[in-house]
Amino acid sequence: MSNPSTGTTDDYSTTEHFITAAVFIGIYVSIFVYVWRVRSQIQSSKDVCPDSQFSTLTMDKFLDDMEREKPIRFTSQQLWIATDNFANLLGSGGFGAVYKGMFSNGTMVAVKVLYGSSDKRIEEQFMAEVSTIGRVHNFNLVRLYGFCFEQNLRALVYEYMENGSLDKFLFGEDKKLGFQQLRAIAVGTAKGIAYLHEECQHRIIHYDIKPGNVLLDAKFLPKVADFGLAKLCNRENTHVTMTGGRGTPGYAAPELWAPFAVTHKCDVYSFGMLLFEIIGKRRNLARNVPESQEWFPTWVWKMVETSNSVELMMVCGFGDKDQDTTERMMKTALWCVQHRPESRPSMSIVVKMLEGALEIPTPPNPFPAYLMESNVVPNNNNISSSTTWTDTSFFPGTGNTFDGSTATYAIVIIGTAKGIAYLHEECQHRIIHYDIKPGNVLLDAKFLPKVADFGLAKLCNRENTHVTMTGGRGTPGYAAPELWAPYAVTHKCDVYSFGMLLFEIIGKRRNFDSNLPESQEWFPKWVWKKVEAGNVVELLIVCGFEEMDKDMAERMMKTALWCVQYQPDSRPSMSIVVKMLEGALEIPTPPNPFATYLIGSNVVPNKNNGSTHTTWTDNSCDLESSSVVARSTLACATPVMRKYGIEMAST
């Protein structure tokens, strides 16, 4: 017989073992399922997420870079570390002191520590600098990286300029700058001030232009600095309200220290005084020279008045080859320091005067008191009275009505060209737009043009002559051929697109229109045939130009044909395009841009047409002693090349 108790015990033990095994199996299964799910999620994330993760990282970096483009707010601790406890003093003055520093990423900076007679004065200077230079970017303006505003430290952080201020090269022991370098510094400084006055969203008046506020980088390229006295003003306001005297005696315009209306022309006066010192490589007032030369501006006036600059050139150490440029600089300076503000040219005209793009009449004496009530101003036929320099070089404003006139279209064309020229040549980094076309040129309430849509644009270093492409860009019909073919790409692709845009503005039609006679279907080629034959009458009639617009229309056609040359090297830079459109350059008849045999050639202009192996240069004048010309003797073979800077391509 079986033992009941024993049987019960065995059954219980078996059941207990079964339950235990089931629990362990359940745990193992759960662990396996959990591990499988985790691994699946990881694998899934590896399969799905890389692009989005890369996209997020790329966008984060982009937004960080954009944030760095704005002035950064630094802590005092960061600046103490960057400057090694403010150990390296670069200079000091009434505004404060400037120290050299370096951030952990290797960026060199100049830290200006502000101090003054009161907190109010420090705050005014601080706000003036951050509100002006903090919102603009230009190749000829010093860049503001950021600031610090704490109880124990008020400081501004600027890009470091290796060669310091211009005054030490003009007045110090080290006068190693040659004439061409000094001229380039004068032109670059003028361009920086012109940008402040005429190209910013709001006009900026500097109020303190002088050699100490022109800084030089490692290549001796100038940048206007120190905006502690600067003021933002609306373009509609012709005069500015002053709260006290501004500027440095000897450079400040007379209206800043007298009860006269103040305009941006006070900067023009100061630039004129700076230009005198660049010419003389000395201070304007010196006691250790003959009495007739003590005040340099008056001595210059006497030399210009008597058309005798030989003695001055000898004293200043200039050679005979520099005579024309020296006289141009002297006349420009004398126009800038005219006693009445309205008799002074705008800074954009000053740039043209210095570059040789304008004929400069002999200026009137800016120094006698009787000029207080006179208004003597030039035109192209030498001196005319009762007129003033105009701020627009060719065409008057059109108000708020688009009247369809050639002058109105010219304003749109030139304004667009200037916008692209700024992107290419005046930004801190060159910007290539890649999609210039009518749809990307917007017009404001006064029909002034603005280049828009930077979705395809690319930043590139000025040192890089060619750009790496990751695929075709631009709009067919406007895009340059190198954008769709295996050729090197440069900023000249925008020049091509502008040329195609210019054709459509001339014709007031699309470049390709199959509804027209076969000879007119493709407008650019029709234009070329008319220009080649020297017969544009039919074209002018079809496009609605009047007889008085003939010269301007032909200038626009030739410019467009130069812009769309097949070889990028043969296209002019946008700054030269502006001069061509404004009439500041004589435009040779262009070669056929559409003939396929030009692919292997390099055809460029001279005064008598038909010169080869040369290209438009980005420089505008005075090539005789530049380092660029040394590479090409042929570049100086004709007068138009010497005058307008046509030379061999360096890229």
TrEMBL record:
It is found in: Membrane. Its main location: membrane. It is a single-pass type I membrane protein. Residues 84-358, 347-595 form the Protein kinase domain. ATP binds at residue 112. This is Protein kinase domain-containing protein. Signal peptide: none annotated. The keyword Transferase applies. Keywords: ATP-binding, Glycoprotein, Kinase, Membrane, Nucleotide-binding, Serine/threonine-protein kinase, Signal, Transferase, Transmembrane, Transmembrane helix. GO terms for molecular function: ATP binding; protein serine/threonine kinase activity. One of its GO terms (cellular component) is membrane. It comes from Gossypium barbadense (Sea Island cotton). The chain crosses the membrane at residues 18-36. Pfam families: PK_Tyr_Ser-Thr, Pkinase.
